[in-house]
Design a protein that fits this description.
single chain; alpha+beta; 4-stranded antiparallel beta sheet; 20 helices; 25 strands
Amino acid sequence: MARHTTTDQQPDNQSDHDRNDDEQAAALAAAARSFARKTVHRYGRAIAPHATAAGVWGAGALLHLADTPAWQVLVGEAGIAAAAATVRALFPTTRTVLTGRWWQVGAGLWLPVAAEVGATGLMQSVYFAAAGLWTVPAVWRNRNYITRPVRKRHALEAAKAKELEADPIVTRWAQKTAGTRGALPGSTLVGREEFARGGAEGVRYRVVLDGQTTEEAMQSRKRICSDFGVAINFVHIEEPDDGAQNAAVVTFLKKLAVVEPELWTEPLLDMDTGVLPIGPFEDGWGDSALQVWEPGSGPLPVGIFGAMRTGKSSILKIAAAEFARTGGRIVLDYLDPQDGQSCPSLLPHVPHALGIDTIRERLYAYQAEMQRRRALLAQIEWTDEDGVTHRGVQSYDHPGAHGMPMLVIAIDEFHLVARHEDLATIVHDILAEGSKCGMTVWTLDQNVYVAGMGGGDILSLVTSGNVVVLRVSDRRIASATFGERMSAYPHLIKIHFPGTQAVTKGCGYLLGATDRPVMMRARHIPRMGAVMRGVPVMTVKLPKVVVEGEDEAAPATRRKRGKGRRAPAVEVVDFDVPAQMPPLEKEDVAAARRATLSLLADAGEEGLAGPELTVRSGLPLPVVFRVAQALAQEGRVRVDGDRYVIADKERVA
């Protein structure tokens, strides 16, 4: 007997049919997407110029159909150009993308005419003839990219492996560097990448290490240069982007990007991040940069070291040109104990102090300014995101914060300043504490020996920030500055580039916002006056801290030390005016005189210098100088060079 089924038990043929249609549609869509991806991959660089030409022509035709007057088109184009210029100025990363090109000028001139007379006929012929002149070269340059055959992954990998086997660099690496007695035994080169950028040409590889670490690979740079018979400038070894410690990236250069100095042409300081690019790396991969300040923290110290005539002042000139364009938010003050001989072209454009006596007055003024700023920042009230009011800020957030400019104190020939104990102490205090107040010190010198830097404490503070080491004669300088943070060879930089007569002035290694172990070259400013023409000269002024009640004319009830301190809101004093030390109480003066006379009597004919009197008496150096000079004027002490000697009658008494 036949079996009957009900309607709900019968198969849904319509649903199956629809499901098959959906599967076929999905398969067709997937095939279309795959075809589109392959087409774009193979012909993408040819499609772009054609699409641009067709789009501009279509825009002209639409403008004519809409009866748009030519003057309106010109106004719109001017607005677009102004918007692009504004974006380029505000966002430096867009400068390359928004760079003007000659075809844009041609299209901009053609569009108003097309809006008036139409985009057909003669206008169309002229347009496409010009578009062809632009399109054909672009297509020809990328012809290999367009006609590259489509292969499966294993076929492409096999082709790349075969190409690597025939690479002479890979062959020599396997024979020498990766050999049993080589610098990196068992290592291999993969991922060959040729490049030509920034004026440099070369090839990069990824090094797969066999039992070694990235640090060991970086330290093998000199041996690898020996394996390939090239100067150290032509081989670089770095940590890979993924940070893997069993790999490295090696670059073999054919052409250096820094043989010819690059000129400084526009400000590059990023006011949001505090990063200041100062010059390109020799492999052309980006710019070396200083971290002038850390947002939310404060300015960082900078140490610039190098032999004579190596370009230390070039970095100062870049900083001066950049800071002068910040509207007074950053000020560079230049201190030179050699009376301005170190960098005379900088003096007309920055505030400066020349000679050790003027520098002493300037640094004492900075010490007072740091104390004033500290007191001011401790009283500032601010409200957090919860609406709670707080008193005091912990750091100097950005240049110009709280109405105070960021002060950069650049001290040239620093060893001449550091030999004075009182000045070294002030510099140490500013390096250690000034960042919170928006102040820091840039030191320039030929060496970084502890004695010449005023002690190990100052050297450690300087090297905790930015370090630039140009050509030097002592290989230990790289270790004293970079330590284990970067492998650098400033002692191997020659006066001339290998095989040329081009000088290496401005070349060195930088550890700051960038820390690549690759030589860079600071940009050059041949004419400081031309660069600074029309730019306001930077000026520095300090609020004068007035302490009431320390002079005889003040009321007796307000004469005690530390009482009645008044905020320095009105009176200001220029740095060029000698710093005024507050007067002392009579009892303090008498005690200081007795202590000074006693110490000088014990010292006899040898006498004591000002710093020695400071250490032995425990008095501040300004007080010691004031008391000793007063005793010398009275005839109780005589001055012998920089030493104070007790007078005979005083010693007999």
